[in-house]
Amino acid sequence: MRNPEYFKGKKVVIVGLARSGMAAANLLYDLGAKVGVTDLKDDEAVRKNAGLLKSKEIELELGVHKPEFIRGAQMLVISPGVTNASFPVVWAIEAGIPVISEIELAWMLCSAKIVAVTGSGGKTTVTTLIGKIIEASGSKVFTCGNIGNPFSGEVQKMKPQDYVSLELSSFQLGMIRDFRPKVAVMLNFSRNHLDWHKDMQEYLDAKKRIFLNQQADDFLVLNELDPVIKAMAGESRAKVAYFSQSPGVNPNQAAVLAVASVLGIDKAVCEKVFSEFKPLPHRMEYVAEFGKVRFINDSKATLMESTVWAIKNIPSPVILIAGGKDKGVDYSGIIESGRDKVKAVVLIGQAKDKIRASLAGAFTIAEAATLEEAVHLAYRRAAPGDCVLLSPMCSSFDMFSNYEERGEIFKKAVLQLGREIK
After folding, report:
1. In the chain, what are the domains?
2. What pLDDT score was predicted for residue 361?
3. Other Cβ atoms closer than 10 A to 191
4. What single DSSP character describes residue 249?
5. Which of 20, 68, 151, 340 lies most in the core, judged by the most C-beta atoms within 10 Å?
6. How far is CA 252 from the centre of its chain?
7. Distances (CA, A) of 357 to 84, 329, 365, 408
C-alpha cells in the first residue's frame, strides 16, 4: 500500500455502516487509526455489520447522530448514500474537518493502477468485462466499487503491478478530492438520480469529477455518440480515446475494446471474453418458463433507457412489471419502443402514480401492493409465448434494501407461482 502510516493514531469517523462503511472501518483499524462509526439506522442489517467489525475498540453510534461523536475527528469518511445534508457532514464542515468518500480513502492507500467507470447505465457490465479482459491478459485485477467488494476492503491486497476495475456512481464521485484513475471511462449520460441531485447539471458535474485530477499521462475514454460525453474532451488534461457502437459490437463492448486498446490488450482476448460472458444476476436474467410464459429478472434496470433496451431485446410480447422509488426519470420514454411490444404494465412502489400518469393511454395498466402480487397479476395477463419482465425503471429503496433483494424476491415469487399452477 501507499502511505500506510498516514492514518496511524488519527481519529477518523465513518458515516454509514453498510458494506463500504464496514470495510473502511476495518481498514482504518488495521492501519492504527482511532475509528468511530455512526449510522442513523439501528436495524438487523446494521447490527449484523457491527458484529463483523474487527475490534470492539471501534466505537459505535447507532440509531442517532450526535455532534459530540465527531468532536476531535481529523477526518470524516462517508459511505455511498450519505448526502451533504447529513448532520455529521454538516457538523464536520462547520468544524473544518475534512470530509472524503470511501473511494477517496482507498485511493489514498492504493498502489495499483485504476480503471474507473461511470455513466448513467451499463457501469456494472463494463466494469465486470474490463476486469475479465485484464485477468485474461495475464494481470491480477480487483473488481470493486458498487460491484463486488468495496474498494477499501481490497486495497491492502494490491500491488503496483495490479489493476483495479472500479465502478463509480455520482454519489461516490461527489466527495472525491485527489482521486486520480489511470484510465477514466464515461459511458453515457441521461436523466437519473434527480431524487438526489438538485438538477441535471449537478448530476453531470458529479460525473465529471472522475477525470478532475487526471494529467497528460492518463487516459479518458469517452462515448463518441453521446454529445454530452464527447464534449468533455475539451475539459480534460488526459489523452482522450473514443468508443462507439458498431455492427456486431454493442456500446458496452465498444467501451471495453477502447480500454483494452489503451492498456495494450489484444482485441482477440476481448472477443474471447465477450463470447464466454454470461449475463450478470438481475440483468436480463432468465428465471423460469411455465405455461409457455417466460420470466426475466432485470431488477438492475433503474433507468428508463435500460428498460427500453430490455423491451427491444426481448423478441416476444411483454408484460412489464415496473416501479419503485422515483429517481426523477421520464417514464414516457418507453412508449415508443413498447407500443407494439408491451401488452400490459403492472406497477408497484412509490412511483406508481407518476408512472401511471406518464403512460396513460399508451398501455393497459394494473397496480399491485407487493412484488409477489405483481407476478401473479402479470402471469394472468400473459398468453403462451409472452414474457413477464421485471424491469423497474426505479431504485429499490422504497420496498427493498437494494436491487439484488428485489430481484431475489421476484425469482422466489416466480418459482412459487410455478409450484402453485402445477
Report:
1. 11-97 (3.40.50.720), 104-276 (3.40.1190.10), 285-421 (3.90.190.20)
2. 93
3. 16
4. B
5. 151
6. 15
7. 32, 13, 10, 28
Q: How far is the C-alpha of 10 from the C-alpha of 30, rounded, in Å?
A: 12
Average pLDDT for 77-95: 91
Cell 474487527 locates to: 54
Instruction: For residue 48, give the 3-state DSSP assignment.
Output: helix
Residues 6+ apart with CB under 8 A from 74: 10, 11, 12, 97, 98
Cell 488526459: give the residue: 238
Per-residue pLDDT of 240-281, as tens digits, reads 999 998 888 999 999 999 999 999 999 999 999 999 998 778
Q: pTM here?
A: 0.81
- Count Cβ atoms below 10 Å from residue 3 Cβ, excluding itself: 11
What is d(CA 174, CA 177) in angstroms, rounded to the nearest whole number?
9
Distance of CA 114 to the CA centre of its chain: 17
Question: Across the strands, what pairs with 264?
Answer: none
Which of 254, 205, 244 has its CA nearest to residue 223? 244
- 3-state percent breakdown (helix, strand, coil) of the chain, nearest 5: 40, 20, 40
Residue with cell 501507499: 2
Neighbouring CB atoms inside 10 A of 63's CB total 11
Burial 318-347 (b: 16+ CB within 10 A, else e): bbbbbbbbbbebebebbeebbeebbbbbbb
**What is the C-alpha to C-alpha distance for residues 277 and 271, in angstroms, rounded to an integer?**
10
Residue holding cell 467507470? 117
| Grid coordinates given for 246 | 458498431
Which strands, in side-by-side order, build the sheet including 99-101? 59-62, 34-39, 11-15, 75-78, 99-101
The cell numbers describing 31, all together, are: 492501519
In the predicted structure, residue 170 carries a pLDDT above the cut 90: no
**What DSSP letter does each residue of 87-156 carry, written as one string?**
HHHHHHHHHT--EEEHHHHHHHH--SEEEEEE-SS-HHHHHHHHHHHHHHTT--EEEEESSSB-HHHHGG
Please give the Cα distance from 341 to 289 (Å, whole number): 19
Q: Which of 19, 9, 279 is nearest to 129 (CA)?
A: 279
> Could you give the CA distance from residue 73 to residue 96 in angstroms, rounded to a whole number?
10
Question: Cα dihedral sign for 318, 319, 324, 330?
Answer: positive
Contacts 24+ apart (CB under 8 A), 91-99: 91/67, 92/13, 95/70, 95/71, 97/70, 97/73, 98/74, 98/177, 99/75, 99/175
